[in-house]
TrEMBL record:
Keyword check for NAD: no
Any Gene Ontology CC annotation: membrane
Protein name (database record): Solute carrier family 22 member 13
The entry's keywords: Membrane, Transmembrane, Transmembrane helix
Species for this entry: Chelydra serpentina (Snapping turtle)
Primary localisation category: membrane
GO molecular function: transmembrane transporter activity
InterPro entries from the UniProt entry: MFS_dom (IPR020846), MFS_sugar_transport-like (IPR005828), MFS_trans_sf (IPR036259)
Amino acid sequence: CFAFRFVNSLVYYGLSLNVGSFGLDIYLTQLVFGAVEIPARFGCIFLLQWFGRKKCQTFFLLLGGAMCLIITGIPKDLPVVITTLAVIGKFAIAASFSTSYLYSAELFPTIIRQTGVGLCSMSARVGGIISPLIGLLDKYHPAIPMAIFGSTPVIAGILGFLLPETRGKELQDHMEEAKESQW
């Protein structure tokens, strides 16, 4: 759960802050980046009920990471393709971010939920702090930032398969209950 929030913040702000490097008009791209968050956030409400937290979280992380990794192989003279892939990646990461708020709260037992969610939020802030620094790595090679923004959600998505599903289950009150029922 810490990794989800860290990676979501890292990639979310990494894509948002590098909107000028995709090759199209920066204002139009920023408008589309903002508009794509509306269906991503509202769509999560229904998807979480239908498919569950674990499947949604891992799918959106893998999709967002895959889009960023594909961007590294697209030539710079195809800015429409790059921007389209970045918008899909931003959609997936925004949906994953929304999912991670609910999922992280449901994973912790009540007795430590406040502390756990606070630590998850702290790890997200660290990801947000690091993302502009990763963007600076493009002076060494233009593909490095997107490779990092793509590989980290893929790794987190794969690790997501290790977590339990929380949809339709009662929230745990104590540590002993959480150990017995989830693991």
